[in-house]
Design brief:
The complex is a heterodimer of chains A (359) and B (599). By secondary structure, chain A is of the alpha/beta class. Chain A contains 12 helices and 13 strands. In chain A, the strands form 3 sheets. In chain A, strands 1, 4, 5, 6, 7 and 13 form a 6-stranded mixed sheet that branches. In chain A, strands 10-9-11-8-12 form a 5-stranded mixed sheet, sandwiched between helices. In chain A, strands 2-3 form a two-stranded antiparallel sheet. By secondary structure, chain B is mainly α. The longest helix of chain B is centred in the C-terminal third of the chain and has 30 residues. Classes of the chains: A alpha/beta (359), B mainly alpha (599).
């Protein structure tokens, strides 16, 4: 009898424990979580957590790099630092999550990251279908092609000139789609060779397995400079075959959070317009420039407190990270990418980098 | 050195040139192999290959972003591993002797191989642009450069030949310390050019060469010394059975200790420990031990079912109450434990071993909870604390440690005569095996959080470890089941005939034979799980391979390594090869010791 009772109790206990574990508790937790999400804005969650979770690339030269000691640097990484500086007054309060291009949007919508700054192109479908919103464009890129001078290509070549050539590009991205579309329009045919990472495409190009390699212009310029092939390789066409505006991405329907991200970017641009840098931000003449005064929280009319931030938030951004020009030249000039005369120049100099007034 | 030339020629004749077809095949394969080697060598020595991209990123490769101020923890963990290896080598020393001439023969074989490779290596000429911008043709590894190397190697051969005449034999396990000594010495004397940056961030190659691994030579030397000391201690205590048992148990607990040691910050949270964990731990320990020793008492036996019922109610209640996790886990453990006590603790010996099992399992649970869910964790700038080789290694070691016992249990359960146990085990095995590993990884990263009880938040790596343990456990289980089926029925009947119970039959007759039969399969499973660990890149963990492939080829600051990913891939392949090759060689030795395939 005793043994039977024990066995019965044991089975009973297992059943109960199993039920308790899987159904009721999960249900309780799930509702609680939903509750959390509805109640708390992203800003509150971030402030409560004490650090920002920023989604970056697994490795994109100049945009997201991991140094030999595991530290992060790059154009996108600097904007993560800028957002953290605006929220906490301390740029280092960031946890980076390196994402592949396949999982980036899932990670954002699942709440694993607060903001995605991972050279992501702003497109209509991504904006509408995926539950994301895009912030101001921080870098205007465009897809271009790179070929060899020895193949008779030059700066003035067009997509029509690559008819019949072998083209290498990385699979599953918009670049693949763009090139097939453009070549089809020009009435040519190409042999498309797709690889998983861009570095493999370049390796194939160097090895002579393909005649043309194509991706965003920023990547091509960097690789041409590194491989010491300024005279052998040529990048064309002069006006890119696609528009690739890159910028921060965040979840929809949280306008407070969107404002914080957007104005962090705008603050770096406005500071650049006034020539305020990391070095001279303390000696900036805030009396003479009331817009800067408001932005840096020195005057009465400042708006940062209404956004849920510290009045000095954007002062901290410039002080700790720097203005747009500094972020750009620090990360991208070594690769041979310059602002002068390009799309990323100041609006007053004919570029596209423009910020609404801070008032 | 007594190479029997005639015998060797006969072997070569019989195996490689026995017929026209086999002669042709020999020539074709040797041509392919030689040109493969020449291609590889040419690739590796070309001056436009930047091997400094590998050396400069060694820290990234090993630990990714683990904070430098806490490196002492990693050194302690590595040191612990070596100390216990030393102890084990000493304790289980095999008295196998080897002679100097045999050793010299092995070394001269290796040196002759290197000489052959040096002679056939290609001289390639590459166009490089020098610092002044002039392009020039450079010859790499020309024949003139080879002569000093070749003369040194041939000199070595002569030295080996002379030494081999000395009649000297020594213990084989002593060799391990000598083998380990060689890399340690290399750390002190080998030199590589290091990179420095001048004020304009341009690379400068300083003329005085720096010793390799400048920061790691002292810890490694200390580790080597402690390894030798531990070996001697092991030899000294060779005949102490309790010491052997203690070392065995420590091997089981060591990964858990290492795991929590690396994760936690500060090292030990004394306040939390004294206030919560130790009282809970001691309380449950006392209850468990009391139950074990009182069970055969007539009065206590009467109340045993009430006690179990009470335990069931309390356990269920605790799941819904806000108590610390250790209490919940310990209650569940106690419940399971109490259910098996009456069956096992009939003799004094059974009681003793059951007490040990109880203490070990409770400690393990406490450690796991502390290490896995602690809120006081080390913060690193990336999302995960482990990365690089330490992650690969952790997944392989920890996966094997957890999944092997799990596999044994699942295999035994699948062969059980109780339908419930058989059904559950078969279900788990089939469910886990029929879903791809990558899917399980996504499950770990996205879905598992939903299944965990309230207030439990496992780190991503812990979740991956759980999934890995189940996945390789299921494969282990099927391998072990194959071993179980290879045991003839007569063995079971003989065990029954001398009156063994099920536990004795399984642990003394069935498992030893079954495991012995499947050692090769088990080792190949371990190697597979070591290599499979590189799949974790898909959920954003940075293992050894991902760092070389994705990260280093994109570095432009402070030193430009853009595009140098192929060197890193070669390096990674080499490291993987070293580890898997060592593992399979060791397992071949182990098989020989077990006498597999011979009896």
């Amino acid at each position: 009898m005793n043994k039977k009772a024990i066995v019965f109790l044991l089975v009973f206990a297992m059943v109960i424990v199993a039920c308790g574990d899987t159904t009721e508790e999960v249900a309780v937790e799930a509702t609680e979580e939903e509750h959390d999400h509805e109640d708390e804005s992203t800003l509150e969650q971030v402030q409560e957590r004490g650090f920002l979770k920023c989604g970056v690339s697994t490795g994109a030269t100049g945009f997201t790099e991991v140094g030999d000691d595991g530290s992060y640097s790059g154009f996108d990484v600097d904007y993560c630092y800028a957002v953290a500086a605006a929220i906490f007054g301390d740029y280092s309060k960031v946890e980076f999550k390196q994402l592949t291009s396949a999982e980036r949007f899932t990670a954002l919508s699942a709440g694993e990251i607060d903001v995605l700054i991972r050279n992501t192109t702003w497109t209509q479908s991504r904006d509408t279908e995926l539950g994301n919103d895009f912030g101001p464009t921080t870098y205007y890129d465009g897809q271009q092609l790179m070929g060899r001078v020895a193949d008779g290509l030059s700066n003035s070549s067009t997509v029509a000139d690559i008819d019949g050539l072998r083209v290498c590009t990385n699979a599953g991205t918009t670049t693949e789609k763009n090139i097939t579309e453009r070549v089809g329009l020009a009435g040519g045919t190409i042999q498309l060779i797709t690889v998983e990472a861009f570095s493999e495409a370049i390796d194939k190009f160097i090895a002579g397995e393909c005649d043309i390699v194509t991706t965003d212009g920023s990547g091509l310029v960097g690789r041409r400079a590194v491989n010491d092939a300024l005279n052998d390789w040529v990048i064309f066409p002069t006006s890119p075959i696609s528009k690739e505006p890159l910028g921060p991405t965040y979840r929809s329907n949280d306008s407070q959070w969107a404002d914080i991200i957007n104005w962090t970017v705008y603050a770096t641009i406005i500071a650049d317009e006034y020539g305020v840098t990391k070095a001279n931000v303390d000696s900036a003449d805030l009396e003479a420039n009331p817009e800067l005064g408001r932005l840096f929280g020195a005057n009465d009319g400042e708006l940062q407190t209404k956004m849920g931030l510290d009045a000095k938030a954007y002062y901290n951004v410039i002080k700790q990270v720097g203005n747009y020009d500094e972020i750009f030249s620090r990360n991208l000039n070594p690769l041979g990418l310059y602002r002068e005369g390009g799309d990323n120049d100041r609006w007053a100099d004919g570029g596209l980098i423009y910020a609404p007034p801070a008032r | 050195m007594n190479i029997d030339i005639k015998k060797q020629t006969r072997v070569i004749k019989e195996n490689l040139f026995s017929s026209p077809v086999s002669t042709l095949l020999t020539f074709i394969t040797s041509y392919i192999m030689i040109s493969f080697f020449r291609g590889m060598f040419g690739f590796a020595t070309a001056p436009d290959k930047d091997w400094l991209s590998v050396l400069n990123n060694m820290q990234l490769y090993m630990v990714q972003a683990y904070p430098e101020s806490d490196f002492i923890r990693i050194w302690i963990c590595v040191g612990l591993g070596f100390i216990f290896s030393g102890l084990s080598v000493g304790l289980w020393e095999t008295e196998e002797k080897t002679s100097l001439s045999k050793l010299c023969l092995t070394f001269s074989k290796i040196v002759s191989g290197i000489i052959f490779l040096t002679i056939i290596a290609p001289t390639n000429s590459v166009v490089v642009s020098t610092a002044t911008g002039i392009r020039e043709q450079v010859e790499v590894f020309s024949y003139a450069e080879r002569i000093p190397l070749l003369s040194i190697l041939i000199g070595l051969l002569v030295v080996f030949f002379l030494i081999s005449k000395i009649n000297l034999s020594f213990n084989k396990s002593l060799l391990v310390s000598i083998y380990l000594f060689v890399p340690i010495i290399l750390l002190w004397i080998m030199k590589i050019p290091t990179i420095q940056l001048d004020s304009e961030n341009q690379r400068v190659f300083p003329d005085p060469l720096m010793p390799i691994a400048n920061s790691t030579k002292i810890p490694w030397t200390l580790i080597w010394i402690s390894f030798v000391v531990a070996y001697l201690v092991g030899v000294y205590f060779k005949n102490k059975k309790q010491f052997k048992n203690a070392v065995s148990i420590s091997w089981v607990l060591l990964p858990l200790l290492i795991f929590s040691w690396i994760f936690k910050k500060p090292l030990i949270d004394l306040n939390e420990l004294i206030r919560n964990d130790i009282p809970v731990f001691i309380g449950f320990l006392l209850i468990g031990v009391l139950t074990i020793y009182l069970i055969n008492n007539k009065i206590v036996e009467k109340f045993y079912s009430y006690y179990l019922g009470f335990l069931v109610v309390v356990t269920i209640a605790s799941l819904f109450l806000k108590v610390i996790l250790l209490v919940k886990a310990a209650l569940l453990l106690l419940l399971l434990f109490s259910a098996i006590i009456p069956a096992v603790s009939t003799s004094a010996k059974g009681k003793r071993s059951l007490t040990i099992v109880w203490i070990v399992s409770l400690t393990t649970t406490a450690f796991l909870l502390e290490g896995g869910t602690s809120t006081t964790q080390i913060v690193v700038p990336g999302s995960s604390i482990f990365g690089g080789f330490s992650l690969t290694w952790l997944l392989a070691i920890f996966g094997t440690y957890v999944s092997f016992p799990l596999g044994v249990l699942l295999a035994l359960g699948r062969n059980s005569s109780l339908p419930i146990i058989r059904g559950v085990c078969t279900g788990i095995i089939e469910l886990v095996r029929s879903v791809p590993y990558i899917t399980w990884l996504f499950f770990a990263s996205v879905t598992m959080a939903v299944f965990l009880p309230d207030g439990v938040e496992f780190n991503l790596i812990v979740r991956v470890l759980i999934v890995t343990a189940f996945f390789s456990g299921a494969y282990f289980a099927e391998n072990i089941r194959g071993g179980l089926q290879s045991i003839p029925k007569g063995q079971f009947e003989a065990a029954d005939a001398i009156g063994m119970n099920t536990v004795q039959k399984t642990s003394l007759i069935v498992l030893p034979q079954a495991l012995r039969a499947i050692v090769p399969t088990l080792v190949s499973s371990i190697i597979t799980s070591f290599k499979d660990s590189s799949l974790v890149t898909i959920i954003g963990l940075f293992d050894f391979l991902t760092i070389g492939r994705m990260v280093i080829g994109n570095q432009s600051i402070p030193i430009n390594f853009i595009g140098h990913d192929r060197e890193n891939l070669l390096f990674i392949a080499f490291v993987y090869w070293i580890f898997t090759f060592t593992l399979s060689r060791r397992s071949m030795k182990f098989e020989k010791r077990l006498g597999l395939g011979e009896r």
